[in-house]
Amino acid sequence: MKITLLGTGDAIGTPKIGCTCPQCTHALLHGLQRLRTSVLIETRGKNILIDTSPDLRTQLLTAGSPHIDAVLWTHGHYDHFMGFGEFYRVQDIPDVYGAPGVVEYCRNVFSFLPFSIHPREPFRPFRLFGLEITLFPVCHPPAETYGLLLSTRNAAIGFTSDTNRNISSESRSLLAGADLLFIDALAPSPIRIRQHMNYGEACDLARELGVREFRCVHMSHLMPWDLPHTSRDGERFEFPD
Questions:
Q1: Dihedral pair phi/psi, residue 184, rounded to 5°
Q2: Which residues share a beta bridge with 5?
Q3: What pLDDT, in 10s, does the model give residues 175-203?
Q4: How many domains does the chain have?
Q5: Which residues is 34 bridged to in the sheet?
Q6: Is the dihedral of CA 235, 67, 45, 100 positive or negative?
Q7: What range defines the domain where residue 56 resides?
Q8: Is residue 42 included in any domain, yes or no?
Q9: Strand 156-159 vs strand 180-184: parallel, antiparallel, or unpaired?
Q10: Which of 15, 34, 64, 132 is the most buried (most CB within 10 A)?
């Protein structure tokens, strides 16, 4: 299984339009960017997307124009699903998997596209192209939002999606000891955001969970470029199937 971070930014992305902060200035000078967060999973010759960001066309072209076989939606916020329309007249519209409320809400937005949804209940593992996937609720008020655990015989990879620290013990237990965790870290410490974690909170939670490695995603333009465990667009990971 190969995992590529297509984007690691928040809803605004980095550099932020019109911003002259140190991070945005550095990004413009050095050709850096954080596109909106989305993840490509390659397994057994199939390609799965976690979320379809508004930057999807650019992200897929950069990744070599893979054919997408399935999509996992975590929640119905603009920066996580509105790029789905980029499939129009490009390929067969992929099937979508997610929690019932999430996929129904997002499907209504894209009612003009012919595609199938596959509602899946949290904490009930299902298989997709040989990969075991488990949805679990996180805390991103007021939006109904779910993280994901991806499991093979040899590895467990967690994705928190957008969340603050108030994740239930049942959800945390799924992530405990994961080989790799992608974790929401919107802003540097000590900035506090009600719906998200900051960098310090994300690092603390990763350590509490005892994960082997973690990367911060969904980062705003306020996040410095050189902090440990911060991810980069295009970063790749590989695990045995």
A1: -65, 130
A2: 39
A3: 999 999 999 999 999 999 999 999 999 99
A4: 1
A5: 14
A6: positive
A7: 2-230
A8: yes
A9: parallel
A10: 34
